[in-house]
Amino acid sequence: MILMNRRLVVAGLVLAAAPALAQPAPRPAQAPAPADPVAALRAFYAKPGRASVNPYLTPRLRRLYTEQQARSRRSGDVMPGLDFGFACGCQDSDDDYHTRNVYRLVSRDERKAKVAVTLKVFASQPETQVITFDMALENGRWLIDDVSGAGDPGWVLSQLLQMRE
Fold first, then answer.
1. Could you tell me the pTM of the whole model?
2. What are the residue boundaries of the DUF3828 domain, all occurrences included (predicted)?
3. 34-161 placed in CATH 3.10.450.50
4. Which element (helix H / strand E) includes 22?
5. Distances in Å between the alpha carbon of 23 and those of 17, 74, 134?
6. Domain boundaries of the chain, sorted by first residue
């Protein structure tokens, strides 16, 4: 008799838990997407140095970047047109140069933004340079759509990535 009651209790518990078991598992919490383009660029500059830039690029710019990397691997040479780091417009910098960056929102609408980043690649030098990021809001995330440097000579990343030897 006791055995029968335990079976009924266990069966009742299983039936009671069945709706909860049928529910999909909760999704793991994801970091919220940056709410503004400046926050997205701060996240870009805060990434580890060797981390891929791909998650921060629009699909168009990511495609150009990937195609240029493939051409570079095939030729066994550096990427034609891009022999410097586009994030700093430099070939060499202090490891922590990005901690000195000054961000300025130049323009913004509901889908596009332009952010100027003034950076100083070496703390010991007085010179600064301005890198301008064209940002696009895609699937709720601000992504880098193009980058340009105002130096002499000026440059535009998407144009450099399309250069061929």
1. 0.74
2. 53-148
3. yes
4. helix 2-22
5. 10, 49, 42
6. 34-161
